[in-house]
UniProtKB/TrEMBL annotation:
This is YhaN AAA domain-containing protein. It comes from the Bacteria. Residues 371-382 have a biased composition (Basic and acidic residues). It holds the Pfam family AAA_27. Residues 165-217, 253-290, 395-471 form a coiled coil. It comes from Eubacterium ramulus ATCC 29099. Keywords: Coiled coil, Membrane, Transmembrane, Transmembrane helix. Residues 1-207 form the YhaN AAA domain. Residues 353-393 are annotated as: Disordered. The chain crosses the membrane at residues 300-321, 327-347.
Length: 622
């Protein structure tokens, strides 16, 4: 790659400047503060961009070269060629309006920096690799720590394509990040599983506590049921004598009621006999009274008397009453009818008297019989009265006994009912306890089944899940991949390490005139000078020798990292501590390289030595 022209709009103190460069060595000469370092930073910024950092305590490159008066006008352009093609690169560095444009000058095609076209033209070299190899500023005479990492990545390029696509450190970082992610996933899954186990164990403890409580409640209830059953049996034993006494009293009551009923039947029978005798006696008395009455009224009829009286009184009434004449005939007829009826009645009674006289004797005999019967009835009545008194006494005694028995029965019924109520209450309580016991047993069985299921789940969760196994396998695979990659890279990088050691040793030997011939890279990604079976770091030597050792290290590393496209060397006061002879040898080595060289210096020594060595160069005075 060759930079042909640089146009600076505004960059640091440089403004509206245009510079053209030679394809090989360019010496930019100027006094202090003339803009040499600014021009070098511009060229580097055009190639790799310029970012504004967020750290306010440090003055970064952006803030250092940002125009003070017009920060928005922070731009420039550059023409370069590579692969026999010329390109125009324009950049606006202002962080609020960042813009970059890359154009192929031959065909006018605009390329995409965003999609990596510029990176491809630069050989996919990173800004860090460039700054630690080809670009050496006044404050960066020693390479940064990144160079060792970059070289390790390059030496670990298993494909050895020189493209720099593979970077061991980045790959290992990615593998480590993936391993951490896999381990994090595994731990999260394990934590979830352990958390689930803990929750299940808590549920187990709760269930065990519930089951223990239910069993204790069941045992207590069983004890209560036993107590209730004992009380029921005790009540049953208490009820048996009461029941027996009650049955005895009931039988006695039935016996007394039967005796009272028999006495009642006897009393009713005696009452019926007494009533019959009284009835017979009354009938006899009525018959005697009728007989006597019949004897006195024989041949006499009241109708005859009324009829005769009516006929006698009719003339008197007719003369005394004016209206009587109208009813006199009818009244006479009635009187005649009454007289006739009275005659008929008198005739009948006369005949009855005769009949009665004829039966007088018979009635006399009957009366005698009746008299005898009355005497017998009187005696029977006396006996009946005596028997009635006896029956009433017996009945009263039976009634008293029955009353006492009924009272006893009532008392026994109350006692028996109380005992039955107590027994029923206890039986209901026992039934409720039995139902509650069944419910408790059902709950215990359900919780035991649930506890068994939880135990099985806990046992299953003690083993890793498939996701955990996969995460662990991924982690192990990533660890193995990193170990394998590191091991293979370590073995394969030995060859490149020897190549690097050889090249930087040759560079240092040429610069120092074979005074120092062996320079090696250490495992700590530093360098040492090996002399007389001893190894010392460059810091153990003079400032100039130290800078020459690191310069050799940078240049050899640059050749390793930039195999596709030789990028320009930007060297700002790099040789200030070199003596004239070693500077001469360094310039000779630079002239042999295919890279474009930019030497920024405030001395004329470099130009004089180049002239003496007949090395072509172009000079720019600032």
């Amino acid at each position: 790659m060759i930079i042909r022209e640089a146009n600076i709009g505004k960059f640091g103190k440089l403004e509206n400047q245009k510079y053209q460069f030679a394809p090989q060595i360019n010496v930019i000469y100027g006094a202090n503060e003339s803009g040499k370092s600014t021009l070098m930073q511009f060229l580097k910024a055009m190639l790799f961009g310029l970012e504004k950092t967020r750290v306010r305590k440090t003055l970064d490159t952006y803030n250092r070269y940002e125009p003070w008066d017009t920060p928005a006008y922070f731009y420039g352009s550059m023409m370069f060629e590579t692969g026999q093609q010329q390109f125009l690169l324009e950049r606006n560095f202002y962080y609020k309006e960042k813009r970059v444009r890359l154009v192929n000058i031959r065909d006018g095609e605009e390329l995409s920096v965003e999609y990596g076209d510029l990176d491809m033209l630069l050989g996919n070299v990173s800004a860090a690799a460039y700054e630690n190899t080809c670009c050496i500023g006044q404050e960066q005479l020693l390479p940064g720590r990144e160079l060792g990492v970059l070289l390790e990545d390059e030496r670990s390029n298993l494909a050895q394509t020189g493209s720099g696509d593979f970077q061991l450190s980045k790959a290992l970082q990615e593998l480590e990040q993936k391993r951490k992610n896999a381990e994090k996933t595994r731990k999260e899954l394990e934590q979830q599983r352990l958390s689930h186990i803990h929750q299940l164990e808590v549920n187990q403890q709760v269930l065990e506590r519930d089951i223990a409580g239910l069993k204790a409640q069941q045992e207590k209830q069983s004890t209560q049921q036993g107590t209730v059953q004992e009380r029921v049996r005790a009540l049953q034993q208490q009820m048996e004598p009461v029941q027996t006494a009650y049955q005895t009293v009931c039988r006695r009551e039935q016996e007394l009621k039967s005796a009272v009923a028999q006495e009642q039947l006897k009393w009713e029978q005696a009452e019926r006999e007494q009533w019959k005798r009284e009835q017979f006696r009354r009938e006899q008395e009525e018959a005697e009274a009728l007989q006597q009455k019949s004897g006195k009224n024989a041949g006499f009829s009241p109708l005859l008397l009324i009829g005769v009286a009516g006929l006698i009184l009719a003339p008197v009434l007719r003369s005394a009453m004016d209206g009587f004449q109208k009813i006199a005939p009818a009244l006479n007829i009635i009187c005649i009818i009454l007289i006739l009826a009275g005659l008929v009645s008198a005739y009948r009674k006369s005949r009855e008297k005769k009949t009665a006289d004829s039966g007088q004797k018979h009635r006399q005999s009957v009366n005698d019989s009746v008299q005898n019967h009355r005497e017998q009835d009187s005696r029977a009545n006396d006996r009946a009265n005596l028997q009635s008194v006896e029956r009433e006494g017996r009945k009263a005694a039976l009634d008293q006994q029955l009353q006492r028995v009924c009272q006893q029965k009532s008392v026994l019924e109350e006692q028996l009912q109380q005992l039955k109520d107590q027994k029923k209450s206890l039986q209901l309580q026992a039934a409720r306890q039995e139902g509650s016991g069944d419910q408790l047993q059902s709950q215990i069985q359900e919780k035991e089944v649930e506890l068994e299921n939880l135990t099985e789940q806990v046992a299953e969760l003690q083993q890793e899940t498939l996701d955990e196994q996969h995460a662990r396998e991924d982690r192990d695979a990533l660890e193995l991949a990193a170990e394998t990659m590191s091991s293979l890279a370590a073995r394969m990088s030995k060859t490149l390490e020897h190549t690097l050691d050889k090249e930087m040793s040759e560079i240092l030997a040429q610069i120092t005139g074979n005074v120092h011939e062996q320079l090696q890279v250490t495992d700590g990604q530093g360098i040492v000078l090996a002399e007389q079976l001893q190894k010392r770091t460059p810091e153990a030597y003079s400032q100039g020798t130290m800078q020459q050792a690191y310069f050799s290290y940078r240049m050899a590393a640059g050749h390793m990292l930039m195999k596709e496209e030789p990028l320009p060397f930007l060297l700002d006061e790099t040789f200030a501590n070199y003596d004239e002879e070693r500077l001469r040898q360094t310039l000779r080595w630079l002239a042999e390289q295919e890279n474009q060289i930019f030497l920024f210096t405030c001395r004329e020594t470099e130009m004089r030595l180049l002239t003496e060595e007949d090395i072509p160069f172009a000079s720019i005075r600032l």
